[in-house]
Amino acid sequence: MGNGRLEGTRRKDPAEYARLDQERQKEQTLLADANRRQQEDTRAATERAVQALELTRQAENAKLAHSLPEYFGSPEKARRTYDELGKFLFAKGIPADRIAQIHEAPIIEMALNAMRFEQAQQHVLRSSEGKALSAKAGKTQGTPTPTRVVPGPATPTPSQARAGNRNADAARQVGERFRKNGGNSIADAAELIRLNGL
């Protein structure tokens, strides 16, 4: 009822006004109670969601600790890995608030693989640039620099020389293939990681 009509009722019929006013107060009390219950329900639902998210995060962290113990096996390793991943993802343009929400083990594992892949690429580029610079320096001085000295007898047999250089040759070949493909081969990157012991 509008205030004007209520005021008119108060003058004409004070008993009816008292009844309507009491009904209005009762409705306000019911509305306030409903609002309070809704706020409590919302707060409880939020707390349950936070607890569920925390349990999910713990489960996903346990999966990572089991599958990648060298990165997530201890709280200290996990903290270091998460810090490094956070910096890597932030440098790629992912907002910090979104990074903080990532907790799914497969997504974290993919981000870790991407970070390791880039680190391997940079390692290969640095090592190939270093070899190129030392080769240039060797040419300017007139004395060639050996690429690898194989320990063993002074005059190794051809089979001994092949066995000693096999890993280095494989790494060199994979590195060349990787560079020729423009760094787009995941298989070559994985092989370089394995051969270089990263």
Characterization of the model:
By secondary structure, the chain is mainly α. It has a domain at 44-138 and 184-198. 81% of the residues lie in helices and 0% in strands. α4 (75-91) packs across α6 (105-141), α6 (105-141) packs across α8 and α7 (158-180) runs antiparallel to α8 (186-195). The radius of gyration is 35 Å and the shape is rod-shaped. The relative contact order is 0.05. The model has no long low-confidence stretch (mean pLDDT 80).
How would you spell out the order of helices and strands?
HHHHHHHH
Tell me the radius of gyration. Answer: 35 Å
Query: Poorly predicted ranges (pLDDT <50, ≥5 residues)?
Result: none
Helix content: over 70%
Largest sheet: none
N-end to C-end Cα span: 78 Å
Shape: rod-shaped
Mean pLDDT: 80
Strand content: under 5%
H/I helix tally = 8
Structural class: mainly alpha
Q: Give the total of beta strands.
A: 0
Quick gist of this model?
With 198 residues, the protein is mainly α.
SSE blueprint and pairings:
Elements: H1 3-12, H2 14-67, H3 69-72, H4 75-91, H5 96-101, H6 105-141, H7 158-180, H8 186-195
Task: Give me some keywords for this one.
8 helices, 81% helix, mainly alpha
